[in-house]
Amino acid sequence: MEKRKTTLSFYSALFFALLFLVWVVFSGFFDAFHLTLGLISCGIVTWMSSDLLFENRSTSLRRRLVQFGRLVNYIFWLLWQIVIANVFLMRLAFGPRENLQPQIVRYECGLKSDFEKFLLANSITLTPGTVTIKILGSTYYVHAINDEAAAGLDGEMERRIAGIFAEDDGIRKGAPATT
To answer: Do both 13 and 97 map to the same domain?
Structure first.
């Protein structure tokens, strides 16, 4: 019980520190009023949802660092996909109106954790031409601007997100790491 409480407080403190760091960087204000507002806001959010980011608290720090590296790699890939989708939408906007075929697409997802599903839904929405409008269990309902945007829901995004949190992190279990 005592170890669980210590682990819980460690992850809560880490989550709070990450939130506060983001708050300070994005706010750009360093006076007492804004920093106090940030502390209060981050404290409330930590109290309400610290288990979203660190759902499995038994994961080692080494594994978390590997996941973080994979997440950064995924973010760069996603940014490139956003650029490609923006160019596609620009061509679509200046092209014939017949190319517009708005539709709702049903997408079945195999991701397990809430955070993975959350990341997928937001990645779909961030990519121009598609918007996640509803999630029921593992079924996503996505608005796509045309057939080509709907075809972009081919599972690549889901595979990359699953790869971030995959169990195989290149670290042999039970054996010391070699240098």
So the answer is: no
pLDDT (tens digit per residue) in 92-110: 989 888 888 999 999 999 9
Tell me if 16 sits within 8 A of 42, measured CB to CB: yes
Q: How many residues does this entry show for the chain?
A: 179
Domain that holds residue 78: 61-164
The total domain count for the chain is 2
The answer to the question of residue 169 being in a domain is no
178 falls within a domain: no
pTM metric for this prediction? 0.68
Q: Are 127 and 84 in contact (CB under 8 A)?
A: no
Q: What is the pLDDT of residues 60-83, one digit of tens each?
A: 778 878 888 899 999 999 999 999
The whole-number pLDDT of residue 48 equals 81
Taking Cα atoms as reference points, which of 117, 140, 135, 133 lies closest to residue 55?
117
Query: Residue 58's pLDDT is what?
Result: 65
Q: Where are the beta strands (DSSP E) in the chain?
A: 103-108, 130-136, 139-144
Residues 16 and 68 in one domain: no
User: Given its phi and psi angles, is residue 28 left (phi above 0), alpha (psi -120 to 50 degrees) or beta?
Assistant: left
Work out whether the CA dihedral 30, 36, 40, 43 comes out positive or negative.
positive
